[in-house]
């Protein structure tokens, strides 16, 4: 018989714990019809890690989840997708959720791995707990973006810019030319790759006078 046990919100960052509030509605043990007893047992044991009656550590939990996900992957990819028992998709979602919870409760974890697991759970599983995997992925993405922005700001503050030297020597003296012809420009500047400043070169444009366009 399923029973309600208390979810351990204390294992997680407060912002993540807020998203996980729907996990409190999980009932254990899992008895999903059409799913073999071994998978139900392993999934239940992994779920218990995050409830008051924890019976295994995170390492064992992750090992068991790998077994569950491998078995479920085979079930989901055997035969036509529409003929697969929907409970196997729920198993994949729950296993993905518990795998994500293992990572979220650990330290020094690459958060991008969490997003990948959520994506696979959303792709192969079925929505549960108000699409909790989508909520977690969205929150973790925001956390990654915030960290990257903070790192960028921190690096920018460390940069030191030295004032321009007063002894800078120019390779070329940039000349100013008035009414320079195309031939002169080609020979004196373009072919020699020398810079030049044109002055009074567009005074004949109708747009700069009161004369109408023709």
TrEMBL record:
Q: Which Gene Ontology BP annotations are present?
A: methylation
Enumerate the Gene3D superfamilies for this protein. Cupin (2.60.120.650)
Which keywords has UniProt assigned to this entry?
A: Methyltransferase, Transferase
Q: Does the keyword Membrane apply?
A: no
Segments forming domain DM8: 69-143
Q: Name one Pfam family in it.
A: ARM_KDM8_N
Superkingdom, natural source: Eukaryota
What's a Gene Ontology MF term here?
methyltransferase activity
Q: Which InterPro entries match?
A: ARM_KDM8_N
Instruction: Return the protein name.
Output: Lysine-specific demethylase 8
Organism for this UniProt entry: Araneus ventricosus
In the UniProt record, what gene is named as encoding this protein?
kdm8_1
């Amino acid at each position: 018989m399923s029973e309600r046990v208390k979810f351990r919100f204390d294992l997680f960052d407060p912002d993540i714990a807020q998203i996980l509030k729907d996990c409190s509605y999980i009932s254990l043990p899992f008895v999903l019809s059409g799913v073999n007893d071994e998978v139900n047992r392993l999934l239940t044991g992994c779920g218990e890690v995050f409830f008051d009656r924890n019976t295994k550590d995170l390492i064992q939990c992750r090992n068991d989840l790998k077994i569950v996900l491998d078995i479920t992957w085979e079930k989901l990819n055997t035969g036509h997708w529409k003929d697969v028992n929907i409970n196997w998709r729920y198993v994949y979602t729950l296993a993905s959720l518990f795998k994500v919870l293992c990572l979220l409760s650990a330290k020094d974890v690459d958060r991008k791995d969490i997003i990948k697991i959520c994506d696979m759970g959303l792709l192969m599983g079925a929505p549960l707990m108000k699409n909790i995997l989508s909520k977690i992925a969205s929150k973790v993405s925001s956390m990654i973006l915030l960290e990257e922005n903070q790192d960028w700001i921190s690096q920018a503050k460390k940069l030191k810019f030295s004032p321009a030297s007063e002894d800078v020597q120019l390779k070329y003296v940039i000349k100013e030319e008035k009414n320079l012809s195309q031939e002169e420009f080609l020979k004196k500047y373009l072919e020699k790759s020398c810079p030049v400043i044109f002055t009074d070169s567009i005074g004949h444009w109708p747009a700069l006078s009161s004369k109408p366009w023709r």
